[in-house]
Amino acid sequence: MARRKKIYEGKAKILYEGPEPGTLVQYFKDDATAFNAEKKDVIEGKGVLNNRLSEFFMTGLNNLGVPTHFIKRLNMREQLIRAVEIIPLEVVVRNIAAGSISKRLGIEEGTPLPRPIVEFYYKDDALGDPMVTEEHIIAFGWASQQDLDDIVALALRVNDFVSGIMMGVGIKLVDFKIEIGRIWEGDYMRLVVADEISPDSCRLWDAHTGQKLDKDVFRRDLGNLADAYTEVARRLGVLPQNGVPRGKPTLIN
Ligand SMILES: Nc1ncnc2c1ncn2[C@@H]1O[C@H](COP(=O)(O)OP(=O)(O)OP(=O)(O)O)[C@@H](O)[C@H]1O
Ligand SMILES: [Mg+2]
Predict the structure, then answer these.
(1) Which CATH number fits domain 6-82: 1.10.530.10, 3.40.120.10, 3.30.200.20, 1.20.120.140?
(2) How far, in Å, is the centroid of ligand 1 from the Cα of 240?
(3) What is the separation, in whole angstroms, between the first and last Cα of the chain?
(4) What whole-number percentage of the chain has pLDDT above 90?
(5) Which among 36, 99, 129, 175 is least buried, having the fewest CB atoms inside 10 angstroms?
(6) pTM score of the predicted model
(7) Are 171 and 204 in contact (CB under 8 A)?
């Protein structure tokens, strides 16, 4: 097979040139990082699970008319996506206080918020992804007021869909992060949900026990991350048929 051109290698994924113009192949790695990559590990099987879970949510959103970059899954670790111009923002939606909002505002973790709260962070690792307001976003030209209105509407639709699906399998969607991209079609521009929707980018708590089923398991050393993600995939019925390969291949006599 001809070698593919690598477009970008991030902390959790690699982007390769796709088979047709305007497409990319997104490869999900097993690498886990937290605290702006200060904490790192390889979690066998994580990439396979995130590929499946992101496929599951993006397909559901596409079917509902919420546009995403997802075209199709190619194999265990790769999916075909539309190449987009990423808006340099992390769009966070919160339903329950946890993580940075609890720390900054002194709200106890687990406190339900009176309504979903949408926050924006400027995507810049060197700056530690600082929080920004709509004023900054418009003043610095990252997005227009119209774009922002559309982004908030998209984010809230994703929130309704994912939280509904999760609640159906006994999991609370505490918060999540998405990225939004622009697709140009002639003179027209469309905003679509990009990057990934997976337990790496969501906080998920078991609705009954409160057990964490997301990347906080890794951030806070609460147990085996792949087991937590496997539990989410199992409940959603999206486990790969032969399970997730972990560790080195073993010889069968
Ligand atoms: N459809 C898309 N088209 C182009 N770029 C995309 C698309 N979806 C996601 N990306 C970008 O691909 C990269 C995915 O890699 P990864 O998530 O590993 O990055 P990262 O280490 O988190 O770094 P970053 O801070 O850039 O997100 C991200 O930079 C993301 O913005
Ligand atoms: Mg990323």
Answers:
(1) 3.30.200.20
(2) 24
(3) 31
(4) 92
(5) 36
(6) 0.95
(7) yes
Mutate to test the pocket of ligand 1, among 13, 31, 54, 58 (most ligand atoms within 8 A of CB): 13
**Ligand with an atom nearest the CA of residue 12:** 1
Mutate to test the pocket of ligand 1, among 11, 27, 28, 201 (most ligand atoms within 8 A of CB): 11
| Domain boundary assignment for the chain | 6-82, 86-224
Q: How much is the pLDDT for 172?
A: 98
Give the tokens for residue 50: 């995130």
Task: Measure 14 CA to ligand 1 centroid, in angstroms.
Answer: 8
Q: How far is CA 48 from CA 25, 122, 130, 246, in A?
A: 14, 28, 30, 10
CATH 3.40.50.300 corresponds to the domain 86-224: no
Nearest ligand (C-alpha, residue 195): 1
